[in-house]
Amino acid sequence: MDPRELLFYLNNKHSNGSIAFRSLDITNDMDTIHDWVNQPYAKRYWKMEMDKASLQKEYATMLSDPLKHSFIGLFNNQMVCQIDCYNVSAEELKDHVEPNAGSCGLHILMCPPRELTKRLTETMLKAFIKFYFSFSVAETLYGEPDEKNTPANIAAKRSGFQFQKTIQLSYKTANLYAINKNNFHEQQFNEQKFKTYSKL
Questions:
Q1: Could you tell me the residue ranges of all domains in the chain?
Q2: Which of 109, 100, 173, 170 is nearest to 141 (CA)?
Q3: Is CATH 3.40.630.30 the right assignment for the domain spanning 6-198?
């Protein structure tokens, strides 16, 4: 499969833009990702500042793992985020939640703050949640931002995740959030009811 092939596409009327996800392109995306992870806003929480060759090796290993994948998020055809999605059983999160085939966690790396439009992180998370639950096997999606990363915690709540508990991982103290298939469909139903009502 061509890594630049779009896997999910969504017209977002609220943000006046289109959203799409594709696989990370290990050849063409590394310059941008390397720039992002080595900037101050990302260094504090991602801790992946390294030379480009090491970073490329890191992501090549991930893309070869059947339990993990890395996606690029596009807003109006511009690369604005990178999302790692992993099966819970493949990471230490399995020590804090019940791992099963339909449970995954995610990490999201946004573009630099100067390039962000208002609530873009929330917008991209909501779109990725829709993408995730478009798969029939998907049951639960987890997020585990650093407890000190206030913007990430706010974005998680606003995008539909529900706070579960604070957990201790090997590299951070994190707030654990989750959204399951029932939560997702209920939120979609309520949003649709509101849209219908608002037209009256």
A1: 6-198
A2: 100
A3: yes
